[in-house]
Design goal:
The complex is a heterodimer of chains A (about 100) and B (about 240).
Chain A: H1 8-32, H2 39-64, H3 66-82, H4 85-101
Chain B: H1 13-23, H2 27-43, H3 48-58, H4 61-70, H5 77-90, H6 93-105, H7 110-118, H8 122-133, H9 140-163, H10 178-187, H11 194-213, H12 218-236
Helix pairs in contact in B: 1-9, 2-3, 2-4, 2-9, 3-9, 4-5, 8-9, 8-10, 11-12
Classes of the chains: A mainly alpha (about 100), B mainly alpha (about 240).
């Protein structure tokens, strides 16, 4: 099997998955174009980024335990203190690795 | 359709550059995760071109890794449909993200919007929404960040595929927590006081309960919708 080969099965699968994902990427946009942008809808959209974040990370925190909890606590603390994403993420990831290395 | 501002959002090179810079803290994690995908793809019997193609076309990390769990090299209509459905459910959160971008991007040429939505991922969405919430309107942020993520995501697949086990134990390096850590960092500049944080707490609580009872990735969409509805009501009474 050469590296440059493309087989028909995987090709169709990749295209089907790409189409399904593109439907998700465009579907919300297209639906929103038909929704009147009332102040209430605007406030909902304004609230969405933070809500997507907490909805994503809270179940991860519950499942992954102390490495995730301490990592998130570290990244939030450093970010609040420094407003430096690089530093905050480095410290957060470092905390995760350290906690896992020490098997806490 | 007079409820939309007629103003066409700008898209400048400077904006794209800023989007690129804002994405940089995420690049090491992106490469590592993409390499991990490349390694699994090789183990699953994909060719290099197929693996790179999947990264380039699909460009959605979590769904690519989940798809590899279903990938069994039996090519019937059923397996392909399963792969498409699994991918769609993992990526359902993009429905919300695209909806949130609509009032901002509408008015731009359709082809440009279509291309920008093809590059929509968690990272460039949250970077762009934060920028927007701080009063910015240059859509170049979204595009520049998306292109940067795409380049490193596609490139990272190759060494992972060729070298294999480049990242021996992804958990040890916290790769499963790259996105949560980045998201947590982005939560800080979105802070607008306790009232808004109540909506966030609703989102987190609903997501947590949903994750407990419903398998798959429904928890993100359920939590985010509940939280933003709560947020809209809470904001009203300000």
């Amino acid at each position: 099997m050469s590296a440059a080969e493309i087989h028909i099965g995987p090709l169709i699968a990749i295209l089907a998955m790409t189409a399904a994902t593109y439907l998700m990427r465009t579907g919300g946009y297209l639906a929103m174009a038909r929704v009147p942008l009332t102040p209430w809808v605007q406030r909902m959209l304004d609230a969405l980024p933070g809500c997507v974040i907490t909805a994503t990370i809270v179940p991860v925190l519950a499942r992954s335990g102390s490495p995730a909890l301490l990592g998130v606590a570290a990244v939030v603390a450093v970010m609040a203190w420094s407003r430096n994403e690089f530093l905050a993420i480095a410290v957060g990831m470092g905390t995760v690795m350290a906690v896992r290395a020490f098997g806490l | 359709m007079n409820d939309r501002p007629a103003r066409v959002p700008t898209l400048t090179r400077a904006g794209m550059r800023l989007g690129m810079q804002l994405t940089m803290p995420l690049i090491p994690g992106t490469i590592a995760m993409s390499a991990a995908f490349g390694t699994i793809a090789a183990q699953k019997g994909m060719t290099l071109v197929e693996a790179v193609m999947m990264s380039a076309f699909l460009f959605a990390g979590a769904s690519q890794l989940v798809a590899m769990e279903v990938w069994n090299n039996v090519w019937t209509f059923g397996t392909i449909l399963t792969l498409a459905l699994v991918t769609a459910t993992v990526n359902m959160r993009y429905l919300l993200m695209g909806a949130a971008l609509q009032p901002w991007l509408s008015g731009m040429p359709r082809t440009r919007i279509a291309a920008m939505l093809a590059l929509l991922v968690d990272a460039n969405w949250i970077i762009a929404m934060r920028y927007r919430s701080e009063g910015g309107s240059d859509a170049g942020i979204l595009l520049g960040s998306g292109l940067t993520m795409w380049m490193f995501w596609v490139a990272g697949t190759i060494p992972g595929f060729l070298v294999g086990d480049l990242v021996k134990n992804p958990q040890r390096f916290g790769l499963d927590l790259v996105l949560p850590i980045f998201f947590a960092a982005m939560l800080v500049p979105l802070w607008r006081g306790r009232r808004r944080a109540l909506g966030w707490m609703v989102a987190g609580a609903v997501a947590w309960v949903t994750a407990h009872f419903v398998a798959g990735y429904w928890f993100i969409i359920a939590g985010a919708i509940a939280g933003s509805i709560a947020g809209a009501f809470l904001d009203e009474r300000r």
